[in-house]
Amino acid sequence: MTFFGKFYLDKEKDVIVTLNLGDNGMSYILETPNHGTGNLITNLAKVCDLPISFNAEGLKVIEGSVPCYFNGENQKVYILRMGNTKVANIYPDGTIERKAYIPAIAKTLMSQTKDYALDINKTLVKTYIKEEVKFHSDLHTHRSANLSPDVLIALGIHHQIRYPYYYIKKLGLKITPEQRAALEKQRADVAANFVNSGLKGKYLDRRIDDNTEINFADLILHNISGSKYNIPRIRASLAVMKDGQAVFTNLEKVYIYRYVFTKGTAAKEKIEIENIGEIPDKDIVDALRQMEKDRRNPDYADNTLFQDGLLWVARNYQHNGITYAEMSDTALVKKTEAAETLQQIHDVMPKITRETGVTIRFLAALRRIPLTIVKDQVAHGNYFTENLQVLKAVAIDPYVAGSDFVGEEINDILELKSVIAAVVKIAKDIPSYVVRIHAGENDSLPDNVYNSIRCVEEALAEGQIFPHMRIGHGLYTADLNTEKGKKLLEKIRSLGVVLEFQITSNVRLNNLSRLDMHPLKQYLKTGISCVQGTDGGALYGTDSIDEQLSLERMLDLNHEELLKMRQADDRVIAGSMKEFNDKIQTFYGKCGGMTVREFLEKRIREKADDFMDLDGGERQYDSAAELSDRIRELPLDMIPVVIAGGSFNNAHHVTTIEEQECRLLDDLIKKGDPGKLFFAIGPSISGYEKYVLDRCKDKFKVFCFVPASITESELSKLRETETGIRVSIESSPLGTYKSFAYEIFKRRQSVMIALDGNSAACNLMQDARNSKYESRIFVDEKSDVLKSKAESLQGYITLLHEGDDADEILRYVEKYYGNLKNISEGNG
User: Fold this and answer.
1) Are 368 and 330 in contact (CB under 8 A)?
2) Can you tell me whether residue 698 is helix, strand or coil?
3) Both 586 and 650 in a single domain?
4) Which of 279, 314, 585, 758 is 20 to 30 Å apart from 227, CA to CA?
């Protein structure tokens, strides 16, 4: 048998089909090497009724033959079917026509569980969309999430960006001896600059490695033998995690990896770009060759990395039939970046539109909370003041369609009421202005959608019309069948609010596990305008076509429902393009001979005193300072038992203490060994978490994870307890789930007992499941939300039933404690 070719059944190149041809015909091998658990290939084989075998490395594969046929033109064609679904037509000349694919949603859910529930019609999807319902916009997407990993890799080579040594180490990349010697020599020089930095240990190492660089083109082109190994690892770092659903913490990390390519800077040492054809990935080779060709095109010869990114986003949209898109970008509310970014957009977008027919505009994005994962860049004070000053200055730019509130939805939108009012004030003089708010993405704050609309409505000046408003996600609200839900539906419809849906990111970010709970069909039935977005599809292994196919198949949308969405799509595009053309006619006249950058920088300076009296909300106290005497390190020689039962509820959910669960906890505290386990709870000191705390006095150590800033009442409550304190990097109580992941799940084996909670508790469960260390999750079967989540984690959880005692929980504590002792004694 000789190699014939290969193709992929998914966008992320995770499901690889290799074709071989010999005297006895064609055969195939299907592999999923990027998925370590084996769940993906096991579930796919089960759905398609195919046998599993193992390759030389001991990994699961699916093998089979590909029958040969002659078509009506007497042409030979090999047809690969799986589960009676035609997957590909394969021709002797090497042409491979893929006829079906695995949506990112199905792939994620297969990876997540040992008991996959979707049928083959939602697992292998035919790639056809009727012309009259084909969507032509992407209204919900993000700048740094829009390019595929392969294009980002090609851009990194083409622009010869600096690639930090830290990422080479973190991803375990292979480098040549010459590259390693050069990096280590450079690293020694960099280290000398940090001798007096005050940093120690891993923090010092990280800073040094971040400032030690290799030219990315050198890494790939001068290390071709290692690139076959390296490229899949780099590619995987540029998308959300593979083996199961991610949480927002994972998303933030992916963005950090992507920033190297989307916001990167050129390496100091340049090389000749040569031997492109030797790169072991055809898609990267094709993209890089086109980029080199673009360098000879006067329109693109001087493109920056950012401008080339826009060009390739537009080319991808053109390929997928998208003509209009709006991308959220936080650069447009930063004094140091906004004017220069818009100058680059003005310089290149008309050329891009001429080539592709695609118009890209931007929503200036305000973070609802600071991005805390970049610890050196945490904003302090009322960071919205500068955002709004810059926004007011750039809002007249035709490429600025409006603004957006982005970030994880872990704070009540009413906390931003004064900021939303300021945005509405900016919109007053710009009739085309779009106010978009991310709301209803998870179930923690089910009133956020209604309150977002109400905040805009109440901020209107006398005589001001309600602006173009869009809600990003809108998954979770009050029950739409109740009076409260019906009131919401009427408000959305009467004010013409448009709802945006992107189910792949909802599933991959652990906000949607049961597709039958999605509200889209109900919104459409009520006459509400609904459109599709991708949420930055490349980051989630999807694009606008795959997203539409997923909407149709996964949510069982019929032709009439798809047509309603297409009509809403058409209305937004038509209105937005008219407003863009009207706006651009007057903008250049206002510049008065100045460049776009000069004009906008002048306006930014003029707005520097605006919004200085913005309401900062209730006073917040610094948890680390106020509770410094209570901060304790977690014991390294004991097993953490995480209790979720009070701190991780949504805004309307109060945990009710019940006898059955109390008996279980009493049994655990009675039988547990305080020398082997300790408890970790959330910040609310309520529900079952308080119950454990009250009964552990003088016996077990209890640690409470608290947000970085707290109110006076929260501070008073914490001071009344006797817990050890761990301070989160997040300022919101619901965001403390991230610190459980950082300090417990990602560092050691653990036990989690989930008795009550909503999306934040589900995130805790998912983080425990995603950990590289085994964590056993016990879930109360009486909690519908947690049980539903548990059903997507079959094989990784134990349901707690009435009458259960703590013996099973303690068995895992003993097991993990035994592992811990073996490691500490040098036996593991």
Assistant:
1) no
2) coil
3) no
4) 314
Residues 632 and 528 occupy one common structural domain:
no
163 backbone φψ class: left, alpha, beta (φ>0; ψ -120 to 50): beta
**pLDDT (tens digit, 9 = 90+) per residue, 420-453?**
999 999 999 998 999 999 999 998 889 999 999 9
Q: Give the CATH number, domain containing residue 418.
A: 3.20.20.140
CATH number at residue 811: 3.40.50
Q: If DSSP states are collapsed to H, E and C, what string results for 113-167?
A: CCCCCCCHHHCCEECCCCHHHCCCEEEEEEHHHCCCHHHHHHHHHHCCEEEEHHH
- Is residue 97 very low, low, confident or very high in pLDDT (cuts 50, 70, 90)? very high
627 with 612, same domain: the answer is no
Task: Give 17's strand partners.
Answer: 7, 30
Q: Which domain, by its residues, includes 160?
A: 147-296
Q: What is the pLDDT of residues 356-403, one digit of tens each?
A: 999 999 999 999 876 544 334 334 445 788 999 999 999 999 999 999
Contact call for residues 627 and 710 (beta carbons, < 8 A):
no
The H-or-E segment that residue 26 falls in is: strand 25-31
Tell me if residue 71 falls in helix, strand or coil: coil
Indicate if 213 and 245 belong to the same structural domain.
yes
Domain boundary among 277, 296, 315: 296
Residue that finishes a domain, picked among 128, 157, 173: 128
| Three-state secondary structure of 422-454 | HHHHHHCCCCCCEEEEEECCCCCCCCHHHHHHH
For 380, other C-beta atoms within 10 Å of its C-beta total 8
pLDDT in tens, 279-318: 999 999 999 999 999 999 999 999 999 999 999 999 999 9
Does residue 133 belong to any structural domain of this protein? no
Q: Which residues contact 24 (CB under 8 A, 6 or more apart)?
A: none
**Domain count across the chain:** 4
AA identity, residue 104: A
- Are 673 and 759 contained in the same domain? yes
- Whether 513 and 471 have beta carbons less than 8 Å apart is answered as no
444 domain residue, yes or no = yes
Q: What is the 3-state secondary structure (H, E, C) of 319-372?
A: HCCCCEEEEEEHHHHCCCCHHHHHHHHHHHHHHHHHHHCCEEEEEEEEECCCCC
